[in-house]
Design goal:
Blueprint: H1 11-41, H2 45-68, E1 76-79, H3 81-89, H4 95-114, H5 119-124, H6 127-140, H7 142-150, H8 155-175, H9 184-199, H10 204-220, H11 237-264, H12 270-291, E2 296-299, H13 302-309, H14 317-327, H15 331-338, H16 342-366, H17 373-391, H18 405-408, H19 411-426, E3 463-464, E4 467-469, E5 477-478, E6 491-493, E7 496-498, E8 501-502, E9 508-509
Parallel strand pairs: 5-7
Antiparallel strand pairs: 1-2, 3-7, 4-6, 8-9
Helix pairs in contact: 1-2, 1-14, 1-16, 2-12, 2-14, 2-15, 3-11, 4-11, 4-12, 6-16, 6-17, 6-19, 7-16, 8-9, 8-16, 9-16, 10-15, 11-12, 17-19
Amino acid sequence: MGYRLDDRLPLSALLLYGLQWWVVTLPCVVVTGVVVAGLHYGDDWANQARYLQKLFAASGLISIAQITLGHRLPLVIGPATVLMVGLAASAGASVSALYTSMALGGALMAILGFANLMAALRRFFTARIVAVILILIAFTLSPVITRLIVGGAHPGPSLALALALLLALVALNEALKGALKSLTMPLGLIVGTIVYRLWLGAGPAAAAAERTALSAGHSAGYSAPDPTWLITPTFEAGPTLAFVFCFLALIVNELGSVEAVGRMISAPDMDGRVRRGVGVTGLGSLFSGLLGVIGPVDFSMSAGLIAATGCAARLAFIPAGLGLLACAFAPWFISLLVAIPQPVMGAVLLYAMVSQLAGGLTMLTTERAISNYSQGVTVGFPLMVGLLIAFAPPSAFQFFPSILRPIIGNGFVMGALIVVLLEHAILRPSKPAPSPTPTAQAPSQTHPPGDPPGPTSGASSSATSGDGPGPSPGANSSATSGDGPGPSPGASPGANSSATSGDGPGPTSGASSSATSGDGPNDHDDKQIR
């Protein structure tokens, strides 16, 4: 290891490694941020840009807070894919109600973290539950990805471009080695945008709006975001209950990520780091919810990049966090991000979710979680229910009371409820399956949002993962799982890792893990819930 956890780096090395972590984190913020901003504001470019400004500011501040006050580990932080699932599935609620629910969920997570009440949750999340959570995130984001890719003016060519870009990203991730894997998602966004513009261009109206947005961004230079940053709190019981399940998954993801990287670099006082890490992530979601942007999660993909570069110094994250914060004050940069075509965003997010899905399937295999028909039903039933609800028309849920619609209409929440019911009640095995040691997944690739998908509690499992919506090379790691846009949007592809449970509906987190290689969009599949 060239630089250890608390080493002080020369200024040149500090800036170089800080730039590296900034590049790895950027796709995670961009993919998830652009996708969620589009869900909220459609073609309103001004509000999309304002959303991204706030998201960059929150990501930068929370990253610095974790490095200095929280777990104090070299962990990439980005928007949580599992929270994006909650936002996408509760689109009927007002934006202020959604983010009020997220803020309340963050407060609950902070209380559980600082009070050190996660032990019971770790035992509760078995390998089957964690694997189902990972796969559910990918399944229930399918309608969002579909709309991004084929919802525009050129559905056929856009689909062809998305599939070609997806294959290219998988091949590129295999071809790149070590720290270079962190370039997978950024290159996908850049090359995909260029090909889309040259081949399909943009409609006259879209082109005019894009020119206006880019012109405004370049002329504005560096400026403070709109002062009206805070939401007006609006409480609605339905979205709040739905987000409780998302945050349970998020905790699992956070646990796995912190433990995976902490164990890899032999960090002392892991109990204290886990407690502070979960607590600060909860406070980060509380802060993000009040700002009206998606909350954060740690990505264990960091283990891969640490293994590849030999730098585990946490201080390198300070310039990376400051770089994210600076992006919030650069309208010209934000305007470039908003101009990325939706089919390209959809393809990168699909890449992150493929890694997420691979992580879940790998966990089922390595943990031998399915050995008979009943165990197969425990996995298959909730996945089919989640997929059914994800694609059901909104009118199908008008039959139910309004307070229950955000829960029954949320494929992720319903799938999670059913797998828990089957695992611990209806199809409970006569001999309880051994709970995996909480491990965090370490992605071997760069991934987005995501939200980002991370492992944490549950049963130990070994999975090869690709980074989700967030970027970053992955390392082999043992993780419990539970976000790349996602590119990073993050899901994020991961590296081979052993995972137990995930951050809730998001990336996986929480179990001890042993990471060997590659950061970022991990070498292969990603198991984090983002």
